[in-house]
Amino acid sequence: MPNTALFWDFDGTLIHGEDTFFNALSHALQDHGACAPEAMVWETLRRSCTWYAPEISYAQATGAKWWARLFAGFAGLYGQLGLPEDSWGALNAQFKAEILATGTYTLYEDALPVLRRCKALGFKSYLLTNNFPELAAVADGLGLRGLYEDAIVSSNLGYEKPRPEIFAAALSAARGAQRCVMIGDNPVADIGGGKAAGMAAILVHRQAECAADFICDELYAVLEILQAQWRP
Question: Can you tell me which residues the record assigns to a coiled coil (predicted)?
Fold first, then answer.
C-alpha cells in the first residue's frame, strides 16, 4: 500500500485554540500595571504576528530574528500605554516565557491516542503549523515526542500557510511519501493550502464550506477516515 504522510496543524487541531498570544500579552501588561483595552491588544497582535499577513514573506527574519520582529511590533503598544522603555525587555521576557510554557496549552483529549494509533498503523506524522520557532519543544513537552517525524514551522522558514513555500518544505520533509494528507481547523491556511499543494485535506473541529475531502468534529473521526481511506 502507498506510504502516507499526515501533516497536522497544531493550534485548534491538536490543542484547543485559546488565544494564547492575546492572553500572554495581556498578562504581561497587567503584571506591569498597564491596563490596555482588548481591541488595542488585538490590533497590536494582528499588526505584529506574521500569520495575520501570510502574503508577506520574511525568510531573512526567522528563528531568534522572528522574536525580535514580534517584539518590535509590541513597542508601539508599550509606548502608547506610557510604559517606561527600560521595562519593555521584562515585558517581552514574561510574554515569551508564557508562550513557551507547556502549561499554557491544552491538548484535545483524543490527540495523543490518535497520534499513537496513527504511528502504530504505519502512518508518518508531521507537524505543519504557523507558529513560534520553539513549537517542537513545546509539542514534545506535551507528550508528542516520538509521535511525529518532523515539525515544519512557519517562523523557522519565513513563510506562513497557505503559502506554497511552506507546503513545498513539508512535501520535501516527507520525500518518499506517495500520498499526503493535511489535517487542520483552518479552511484557508490548512485546507486551501493543502489542496493547492496536491494533498488530500481533512477539516477538523469546525464546520465550514471549503475544499476539504472530509469534515470531522473530533480527531477520533479523523482516525476512522484515515484507516478507511488511506491506511498504509
Answer: none
